[in-house]
Amino acid sequence: MWKFEFYYTPDAQTPEENIDLIAECKIDYRDFNYGLDGTTLGFYKDIYLFLESDSVTSITNLNFQFDGGTVVSIVDSRINDKTIKWWHQVGRTNSQGSDPIHPGSPNKGLFKSLSGFTTLPIYATDYGASKHLNPGDIDLNLKIVHNISTRDTLIDTITNITVKKKAFMQLDTGITFNMITPIFGYNNLIVEDSATLVLNSNGKIKIYNPNRITLKYQSNLTFHPNSEMRFINGGAFCNEGGKVRGPGNSFEKDYTAFVRV
Questions:
Q1: Sheet-wide strand order for 119-120
Q2: DSSP labels for 8-28?
Q3: Which helix (H) or strand (E) element contains residue 186?
Q4: How far from 205 is each of 2, 116, 160, 211, 232, CA to CA, in Å?
Q5: Are 243 and 220 in contact (CB under 8 A)?
Q6: What is the rounded CA–CA span in Å between residue 137 and residue 140?
Q7: Are strands 60-66 and 47-53 parallel, antiparallel or unpaired?
Q8: I want to staple 181 with a disulfide (CB 3.0 to 4.6 A). Which of 18, 64, 207, 208 is the partner?
Q9: Of 175, 113, 168, 100, nearest to 140 (Cα)?
């Protein structure tokens, strides 16, 4: 999810004196069907943003246009909350049957972890972005194929890593996720309702004090043979009505676990 903000500074003033927000929109790119081009590793469906200013009313209008489509206003009745959805390509039709009236749902696909990004959450601000809202949200299906860990120094005192509704996060065979003890605060790995956390064979999640795992009502946790979650020296488990299937789920000698129903 990207958020774009457009600002205007009058010519007679410096940016520090007057900066006016004149338009904004969000682009929801969370759709596997419109991801990266596997050949060029570039976005293969362009979108153009246009700013138009009415000299009479001084109102600035923000329009957009998908490649091959018509120009559409951001306040079009088919656009909710100024959010352009990549699977709802208003203004164009294509061979995949994109329907601007009945957009359906995005394809959550199956994404895999990368070797250069093995610490969760991943903050876009570490790579030049000015802001990153909800960096711990996992909205698309994610398969972890590298050993990963949480940060030792948290940006937020309570840092949530959240598998969102209808998505899943899967630890591949033999992969370990270390939720290490941070310098301050704690991490909370949350599995929302209808979301799923899967541990393949010999997959492990180690939850060190004071981190926790929270299963929301009607969430899912699946263990495969020899997989396990270890709650070590005060790591906590909070089950608010999630379904746990399969073998595993061991605890070390000194642990703290609590369950809420």
A1: 119-120, 148-150, 176-179, 204-208, 228-232
A2: E--TTS-TTT--EEEEEEEEE
A3: strand 186-191
A4: 30, 20, 16, 11, 11
A5: yes
A6: 9
A7: antiparallel
A8: 208
A9: 168
What's the CA gap between 91 and 94, in Å, rounded? 10
Read off the tokens for 179.
């939720």
pLDDT tens per residue across all 261 residues of the chain: 888 888 877 665 555 555 778 889 999 887 777 655 444 445 556 789 998 877 655 667 899 998 878 899 999 988 999 999 888 888 876 544 455 555 667 788 888 999 999 999 998 888 887 778 888 999 989 999 999 999 999 988 999 999 999 999 999 999 999 999 999 999 999 999 999 999 999 999 999 999 999 999 999 999 999 999 998 888 999 999 999 998 766 555 455 554 433
SS3 content of the chain, % helix, strand, coil (to 5): 5, 40, 60
Q: How many CB atoms lie within 10 A of CB 222?
A: 17
Give the C-alpha separation, 159 to 152, whole Å: 11
> Within 13 A of 54's CA, how many CA atoms are on the CB side?
7
